Amino acid sequence: MSQENIAKLRCDVCKRVNYQSTRNKKKIKEKLQLKKYCSKCKKHTLHKEAK
Ligand SMILES: [Zn+2]
């Protein structure tokens, strides 16, 4: 497994990195966008993949 496959998921509201996910960049070209709970915002927010 390579570090290349680790994607950080960052809250789009407070910009805090709350989750890590894996992504096969060779198979999936799109950036990840997920609705997840942010403990800082105390609600579900959109989390986008960060570098
Ligand atoms: Zn947040």
CATH class category: Mainly Beta
How many β-strand runs? Answer: 4
Please identify which CATH superfamily we are dealing with.
Ribosomal protein L33
Helix coverage percent: under 10%
The ordered string of helix (H) and strand (E) elements is EEEE
The set of bound ligands, ions and cofactors reads:
zinc ion
Strand fraction band?
Answer: over 45%
Mean pLDDT: 88
> How many H/I helical runs?
0
User: Could you say what the CATH topology is called?
Assistant: Rubrerythrin, domain 2
Indicate how many domains the architecture comprises.
1
Q: Classify the secondary structure makeup into a structural class.
A: mainly beta
* CATH architecture label: Single Sheet
Give a quick summary of the entry.
With 51 residues, the protein is mostly beta strands. It has strands spanning 6-11, 17-22, 33-38, 43-50. It has one domain (3-50): Single Sheet (Rubrerythrin, domain 2), CATH 2.20.28.
Description:
The protein has 51 residues and is mainly beta. The protein has one domain: Rubrerythrin, domain 2 (Single Sheet), CATH 2.20.28. The chain has strands spanning 6-11, 17-22, 33-38, 43-50. The protein has a four-stranded antiparallel beta sheet with strand order 2-1-4-3, with no helix packed on it. The two termini are 18 Å apart. 12% of the residues are buried. The mean pLDDT is 88. The protein binds zinc ion (ZN). Zinc ion (ZN) binds next to loops.
